[in-house]
Amino acid sequence: MNDALNYVNTEGLKFFGKVNASISHELKNILAIISETAGFLNDLTELAKQGKELKLSLLENCSTSIVEEIQRGFTTIKQMNRFSHSVDVPVTDIDLVETLDLMAGLSGFLSSAANVSIENKCTESKTIRTCPFLLQNFIYQILCFVYESTGPTGEIRIHLLEEKEKGVLLTLFSSAQMSVEKFPDEKMKKTAGILGIEFKTNHSFYEINLLIPYAVETITQLDPNG
């Protein structure tokens, strides 16, 4: 138990730092675009003061660009807040689809990120009792691994299916061939072991199969109120 807690704390700090760095980079890009657009508007204003023709289409384009970037900023901050609050409770019931959606969004800030779509085939809304922060870390690791093969022009499809009473079978389909002989690495195995996640046998270089349990004893031990 102590070993698991030490691992969660150590890897958690690294993960938290990495994600926050990518978020701050995204926000910096947003502000840079708004700043450049505002500068262009200022140039247009100065030209108009000199009697030059002011095209309304240029003003409209600038306005649209600023509105779009502000909305992107609001979305990024919302994702940041959701991620930050994932450390509030060590163990709790979570919606797996929401967690996948959040990690797809946060990992999407990486330069190597591909387009990710999530397909939920579960007939009922199943909750999973887990450590939200550690599960996010694990999913982020998996996505980063797949990104190495697909690249920013590739596509990843995440498929969820109920696996009777055991949990949810999660499959990642990649548009590019992956180096699965290097998968999973030691960090992934360690994280999966604590979360009770099983790597399902698969001989395809285009997909990864994982069985995520509804609950597991190693996780309940991490709950100080359990």
Q: What would you say about this model in short?
A:
The chain is an alpha+beta fold and 226 residues long. 54% of the residues lie in helices and 18% in strands.
Structure description:
This protein is an alpha+beta fold and 226 residues long. It has two domains: 2-85; 89-220, 2-Layer Sandwich (Heat Shock Protein 90). The protein has helices spanning 2-49, 56-84, 96-107, 132-150, 186-195, 217-220; strands at 92-95, 115-120, 127-130, 155-163, 167-174, 198-199, 207-213. A five-stranded mixed β-sheet has the order 2-4-5-7-6. The longest helix is centred in the N-terminal third of the chain and has 48 residues, at 2-49. It is elongated, with a radius of gyration of 22 Å. The model has no long low-confidence stretch (mean pLDDT 87).
Walk me through the topology.
Blueprint: H1 2-49, H2 56-84, E1 92-95, H3 96-107, E2 115-120, E3 127-130, H4 132-150, E4 155-163, E5 167-174, H5 186-195, E6 198-199, E7 207-213, H6 217-220
